[in-house]
Amino acid sequence: xxxxxxxxxxxxxxxxxxxxxxxxxxxxxxxxxxxxxxxxxxxxxxxxxxxxxxxxxxxxxxxxxxxxxxxxxxxxxxxxxxxxxxxxxxxxxxxxxxxxxxxxxxxxxxxxxxxxxxxxxxxxxxxxxxxxxxxxxxxxxxxxxxxxxxxxxxxxxxxxxxxxxxxxxxxxxxxxxxxxxxxxxxxxxxxxxxxxxxxxxxxxxxxxxxxxxxxxxxxxxxxxxxxxxxxxxxxxxxxxxxxxxxxxxxxxxxxxxxxxxxxxxxxxxxxxxxxxxxxxxxxxxxxxxxxxxxxxxxxxxxxxxxxxxxxxxxxxxxxxxxxxxxxxxxxxxxxxxxxxxxxxxxxxxxxxxxxxxxxxxxxxxxxxxxxxxxxxxxxxxxxxxxxxxxxxxxxxxxxxxxxxxxxxxxxxxxxxxxxxxxxxxxxxxxxxxxxxxxxxxxxxxxxxxx
Length: 450
Ligand code: HEM
Known about the structure:
Layout (H helix, E strand, L loop, with lengths): L22 H6 L1 H10 L3 E6 L2 E6 L2 H10 L4 E3 L7 H4 L8 H11 L5 H6 L1 H12 L7 E3 H17 L6 H23 L2 H6 L3 H26 L8 H10 L7 H17 L1 H14 L1 H15 L6 H5 L2 H13 L5 E6 L3 E3 L2 E3 L4 E5 H4 L19 H6 L18 H18 E5 L8 E2 L3 E2 L4 E6 L3
Parallel strand pairs: 2-8
Antiparallel strand pairs: 1-2, 3-5, 4-12, 5-8, 6-7, 9-12, 10-11
């Protein structure tokens, strides 16, 4: 199916108010708003205050934006909300500077390197799972959040980061993320004009994280020999080799970027997978059987993870239904035409990965959980650009393989020993925070008898 606009007019999402446009509706229920826009067609006009923007909900348009005509787009302005913490780190930097940072950091994400993080992932998971009692209720999302913070710190930065620093990151990050969200909806300059309690808490949390970041950079500098391919070592070595652009501030910004990007998203993916496993116990049993067959009670290995085909399909379907990064934005650098639609220069373009991945024109029963849709040839027939939880093109997720390994290693380690069940059958509505999260997600853990 090719989307070429027969009528180049782009429909407007109804319900825009004078002065504020759609802003209040977007803030109140962003997911519902994005679905309404998707119902109007591949692309719709929305209003952020008086300013017009676009909302894209179709994979072919998304491919144009992220890959084929990526040169005509830059990161959207909503990324600016993260500038106070992430500075000019790899998520926010652009052009040739971004390309060189990515080249410097790539070695930390090679297949071999990621496999070498596996022990850290497994033992961090075990440290938590072995403290559970049979029948205990666990707040799954919060637990995964803490675990992901630990995993990203201990694998990306081989530092003896003190426990209190890890706890501080875990405590401060949600305040910072919700601050980012407010700043996406209301211009930061306006927010800072009227200092509020939440504004002060946001800056205090940013400052606490910044202090930790600077301390870690200083600790590394004080070390003699640096570990090979550790992310911080790659950055510091580049500076040591005379790279004038790799200042301490830049290294700090990269550290914060990796910490934020790596600890916000994976817990959402693990949380949603567990939610679905609780809802579909037969799927959970099938994963347990696969994990038992591959590992037979032994610790997970990189080679073994490659054999978890069914588990991977389940995680993939969970990432389709609940993409942790559910919407992103770009800005047109010039007038550009995508699939027949003319977009004006200097206009914000939001795209909803959530809507793209639930497009009824692509997926049969788009709102249903069907891991089998990814089986063999059937899965290969689905257009690649209609499954983009990690983005696409030159700005795709550098941590994609890390995340796949982490999610599978943690789920396999969990399900080797435990069966998880929802505390009740109440639906779990997605909360569109920085990532699309399932809320606290209380689940009962039952020790498996084998
Ligand atoms: C399920 C987990 C994850 C999801 C769904 C996810 C999703 C994404 C997406 C959609 C982007 C593209 C943003 C854009 O196009 O503007 C992105 C970028 C990025 N992600 Fe991830 N991510 C995940 C895990 C991770 C992890 C574990 C790390 C690090 C350890 C990481 C680090 C990054 C970085 C640094 C970028 C910016 C890359 C660049 O601009 O060159 N992510 N991620």
